[in-house]
């Protein structure tokens, strides 16, 4: 692709992420996204084929930007396996804070039944394999409870997602104490204790 085409495609994706995060797949229109990106809608169809293709590309672009497992975090986990849960959850919280559109797009994708999410499989397979290796080593060393890896990772992903996506209602149902430290650090530490042997 020529540099101008790459820039145009990126403008479209950035606008799509914004509009889809705000309105969801059904609520957003290609016309709105074209207007926000300052392109005609034929350009969107030329690059992405359909509104569905654009939504999937926007979701993948957002997913790819969100660094759930930084090299620094993986090194910290390798050096301090007993803190694995706290470090992972803290990293997930930081990722959600840096990109609030991420959990909104995930919510819309789940609510509206996006048909093809297979690109997300490829986006995280390497990261998940590395976390699995560190998890298995921590379990073998007696640093983490021997639970199923997928249950473990699901729990951490669910807690971090729910913390941000349901914050407003949780403050009213659980009280504000859970959110009083501002960054979820206390919750990360407490959940770390849950998984320690």
From TrEMBL:
Stored Pfam families: TetR_C_29, TetR_N
Question: MF terms per GO, please?
Answer: DNA binding
User: Signal sequence span per UniProt?
Assistant: none
Which InterPro entries does its entry note?
Homeodomain-like_sf, HTH-type_TetR-like_transc_reg, HTH_TetR, NicS_C, Tet_transcr_reg_TetR-rel_C_sf
Annotated HTH tetR-type domain ranges read 6-66
Which part of the chain engages DNA, per the record?
Answer: 29-48
Task: Write the record's keywords in alphabetical order, separated by commas.
Answer: DNA-binding, Transcription, Transcription regulation
Task: Indicate what this protein is called per its UniProt record.
Answer: TetR family transcriptional regulator
Q: What is the lineage of its organism?
A: Bacteria, Pseudomonadati, Lentisphaerota, Lentisphaeria, Victivallales
